[in-house]
Amino acid sequence: MVTRDLVGARVVAVHAHPDDEALFGGGILAQLASRGAEVTVVTCTLGEQGEVIGAPYSGLVADEADQLGGFRIAELQHSLAALGVRGEHLRRAGAFRDSGMVGSPSAEHPRAFVNCGEEATAALREVFERIRPQLVLTYGPDGGYGHPDHIQAHRITHAAAEESGIQRIVWSVNSAAHTAAALADITEVPRGWRMPETGELAVVDSWDIEVELSDQDLAARLEAMRAHPTQIWVADGTVSATNPEAAYAGVKSTAECAAVFALSNLITQPVMRTEYAQLGAGTAFPVGASDIMAGLTW
């Protein structure tokens, strides 16, 4: 039985695109919500520049119909419901546009998130002042894997948090050692997928806290990932109107690798039963802590 020990606590996660809330610390968010915390996901763009998995809606991409952002709003809503958290768009839906990957011409758009630092910081500061969270989750200085919008999300989070009273900011990361162990448990990948080469997955050698996910937390995270079928392909046989093709992976043990997924690049990645974070700012974790709220007051 889950203990409702976080009633009254407030948490904000700042993410660049729809699907990031599921991919970066989604299990932690689900766990905090189930324990009674008020968890809000702030999504900075609509992910308009994303690619699309599955043929039925492949024409929604920016270079064709340019309707992907609106479609991803619905995916985000389903994901938030799966995690048991509330969500809002920074300033308003569509205020800031997906900047695309490094070197993309889309970064020249006047509404591209990378060009709107001051406005975005002011908008996020208003969110922090209204919600008054004790804990904020986002990415590290490299954005997790170098995406310009993730880096911008990191920057505005720390800028907006100044003099806000936020007790702790954490960065969602993946453990290099545990990711390697989980990958070693994968015995078969779906047709067309491949295993990652050295350095292809964003991982770190050190972290400040690791949070064990319950079966309920893990199930919520996986449901949230499945809610983004244009972006995430879970290799568990799931099909949808968006991606009608089933994918299956072989895993010799689920102790490390609870599930297998890929993004549109079809590079195999593990879903693990533990999530990791680094301390970005604020109150340090008590020695030996496994609760991401440990040491905070509300």
UniProtKB/TrEMBL annotation:
Listed EC numbers: 3.5.1.103
Keywords: Hydrolase, Metal-binding, Zinc
Catalytic activity: 1D-myo-inositol 2-acetamido-2-deoxy-alpha-D-glucopyranoside + H2O = 1D-myo-inositol 2-amino-2-deoxy-alpha-D-glucopyranoside + acetate
One Pfam family, short name: PIG-L
Annotated function: Catalyzes the deacetylation of 1D-myo-inositol 2-acetamido-2-deoxy-alpha-D-glucopyranoside (GlcNAc-Ins) in the mycothiol biosynthesis pathway.
Family according to the record: Belongs to the MshB deacetylase family.
SUPFAM superfamilies noted in UniProt: LmbE-like (SSF102588)
Cofactor: Zn(2+)
Higher taxonomy: Bacteria, Bacillati, Actinomycetota, Actinomycetes, Mycobacteriales
Cofactor binding note from Swiss-Prot or TrEMBL: Binds 1 zinc ion per subunit.
Top-level EC class as recorded in UniProt: hydrolase
Molecular functions per Gene Ontology: N-acetylglucosaminylinositol deacetylase activity; zinc ion binding
A GO BP entry: mycothiol biosynthetic process
Source organism superkingdom: Bacteria
Protein known as: 1D-myo-inositol 2-acetamido-2-deoxy-alpha-D-glucopyranoside deacetylase
Stored Gene3D superfamilies: LmbE-like
Residues annotated to bind Zn(2+): 17, 20, 150
